[in-house]
Amino acid sequence: MIAYLIKRIAIGLVTLAVASAVVFCVLEIVPGDPALLMLGMNAEPEALAALRDEMGLNQPVLLRYVDWVSGMMVGDFGRSYTYSSPVIDLIAERVLVSLPLALMALFLSTAIALPVGIFSAARRGKAADTMVMGAAQVGVAIPNFWFALLLIYLFAVWLRLVPAGGFPGWGAGVWPAVKALIMPAVALALPQAAILARVTRSAMLEVLGEDYIRTARAKGMPRRIVLWHHALRNALIPVLTILGLQFAFLLAGTIIIENVFYLPGLGRLVFQAITQRDLIVVEGVMMLLVATVVLVNILVDIGYAIVDPRLRTRR
């Protein structure tokens, strides 16, 4: 198990190194002069020279990259030109919105998808299976921002149960903050739940055709025990894969939802940084998201080893 974990961590570190080089090249070398992009084409030469000196753009490219990476390793992501504050402080403030939102959406997606997928697999070919998978197909096809607008109209404008947007902050209390995140979490969760339900159904159908499942049924084991204790665990490998991908998507792909609900999260921060050409902030947030994806993949690999003990001993 230790060797398995060390190998996955080493792969994750290599991925981070490659991603940092790609992000640095795309945002600082390919577009041209970052200072000119940030100040605009009509910038004064003196202001342009001062910003280039502040950002260290007069140094060789390799030295700039090494300084940037070494700074991130000690928590220094640079200083935002637009906000005049350290990037790490901006990220720490915004992640308190995006991370709970992603966790709430992932919990809702999993709580909906697993029972629905198992229910559909247990009734393969019947009317209930057709109706559930048809609804899941509709959920996959609906854009989450359009679904978010429907939720706003129904629950905020018509029924007036929850606020239409904004975030009061955690200082206003846990319930007001959670209440502001309910509709965005539902808008993110339902399309992802539709995908996860279809994957769960497919994985369960493959497992239900195995010999040991037929043997358990032949011995008179209750249907619920067969489904939840025997079939589900062996069907969890593809489900865990999709869960890991979905969490990364929910954390990194909230730009539209956070703008629809006017939430001060990472997605909105990236959107504002791109429109304001604040490349330092974009670099920092992108590397944080890449690190999150790598960490989630490592946790998913550990989940594989827990679910399937053969992976702990396989060379």
UniProtKB/TrEMBL annotation:
Keywords of the record: Cell membrane, Membrane, Transmembrane, Transmembrane helix, Transport
Membrane topology: Multi-pass membrane protein
Record domain ABC transmembrane type-1: where: 95-300
Transmembrane segment boundaries: 9-30, 101-122, 134-158, 178-197, 231-257, 285-307
Superkingdom of this protein's organism: Bacteria
Keyword set includes Transcription: no
Principal location listed in the UniProt entry: membrane
GO MF annotation terms: dipeptide transmembrane transporter activity
Gene Ontology annotations for the cellular component aspect, listed alphabetically: plasma membrane
Subcellular compartments: Cell membrane
Family: Belongs to the binding-protein-dependent transport system permease family.
The protein, known as: Binding-protein-dependent transport system inner membrane protein
Organism: Nitratireductor pacificus pht-3B
